[in-house]
Amino acid sequence: MQEKFVEIDGNKIRYLESGNSDKNLLLIHGLGASAERWEFVIPYLSKNFKLIVPDLIGFGYSDKPLVDYTPEFFSDFLSKFL
Known about the structure:
There is one protein chain. By secondary structure, this protein is an alpha+beta fold. Helix content is about 20%, strand content about 30%. The chain has a 4-stranded mixed β-sheet. The chain is elongated and about 35 Å long. The model has no long low-confidence stretch (mean pLDDT about 95).
C-alpha cells in the first residue's frame, strides 16, 4: 500500500493506493473516520482491484479548511479528486 498526496483547491489531500488491477475501486469512509477505516478489507480487495482510498477533505491526514461540510461540498470535492 502506498501513501500519496494530491492538491485540490489549495488543500493537501492524502490517499492510499493498493493493488495493480485494471479494475479500479474507490473506497470512501464515513463522516468522522479516515482511510484507515478500510484497513481490514484493503488486503482482500487489492487482490482483484486497484484501490484508491482517500482521507476526505476535513478528515484524517487531509487538510481541514474552515468551510461548510455539506453533501454538495463533498460531492464537488470527490468530483475534483477523481
